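Bug report (template v2)

What were you trying to do?
Predict the complex of my protein with alpha-L-arabinofuranose.

What happened?
Run completed; filing so the output is reviewed.

Input:
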Amino acid sequence: MTALRKTLGIAAASLVLLAATACGGGGSDTASSGGGGNDQITLGFAQVGAESGWRTANTKSIQDSAKDAGINLKFSDAQQKQENQIKAIRSYIQQKVDVIAFSPVVESGWDTVLKEAKDAGIPVVLTDRSVDSQDTSLYVTFLGSDFIAEGKKAGEWTVKNFANASGEVKIAQLEGTTGSAPAIDRAEGFADVIKSDPKLKIVASQTGDFTRAGGKQVTEALLKSNPDITMIYAHNDDMALGAIEAIEAAGKVPGKDITIVSVDAVHDGMQALSDGKINFIVECSPLLGPQLMDVVKKVKAGESVEKRIVTEETTFTPEQAKEALPSRQY
Ligand code: AHR
């Protein structure tokens, strides 16, 4: 499956779409935006939840840009549960929205509901996270980050940082939501790069579900079972921030006694990086709203869109975080 997504990333094939026919109808889950006449596009968006600072920024980006684009947005929050997302998608099908977009909580188990959308003639856009469906005609495009590349960037920094370390470097990994694309791919990309240096060892790996509370809880247990860990690799900033709380409560200094690398670059993560409590952050941009609305408009107009649209991202050291913080949007 990962190979499939990698192939899609490289190929960026184009697909001409049939415009959906029906518009509007039905009650909204939580929000509706934009003014509009008869031609107004209705977009049903099934969000993952509100698990992290990244997700909050992503939701805001989608709601703001729908408003700016004059798109009628029907928005639902799945509270990190796949069954809630499936329910929301079915409700959007029933309401005959023009386009459905969603960030799948996990990669697997979407074929049935995606077929239902296809049979109803409603195009589906994947954003932020992808699915592992073999039949890629079930969705129009996937707009979001390359999570394997993010894991690799974290791995490259780790290899460089510990190049001259004398003993074993004991790494604890705080995984994102089990079965989610970013958790699977960030682990894969990281492992792929650090295997070049045999002294870099992942000694523990557990899920903190992308939440601050999860990161704290896992790290508390980890510091008891592995008190001599050298580094924590967190799949997102929120879990790294939870880890910082646990490390400080255990009387250790985050960023010094234990090196911390994370992914996202949300405001609180960047502040901790700038304060020296996190050592390196790989950016994952949540500002997908404007690009998503462009894609939705093209899809509705029957124009072609690329099958894979990759978000551009960078990395941050503490010095770069200091510089970037004043103008950081999220
Ligand atoms: O899918 C993107 C990931 O989901 C973000 O990195 C994480 O913070 C969020 O919960």
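What did the reviewer find?
The pocket of alpha-L-arabinofuranose is lined by residues 51-52, 54-55, 128-129, 182, 210, 236, 238, 263-264, 284 (CB under 6 Å). The two ends are 32 Å apart (CA to CA).
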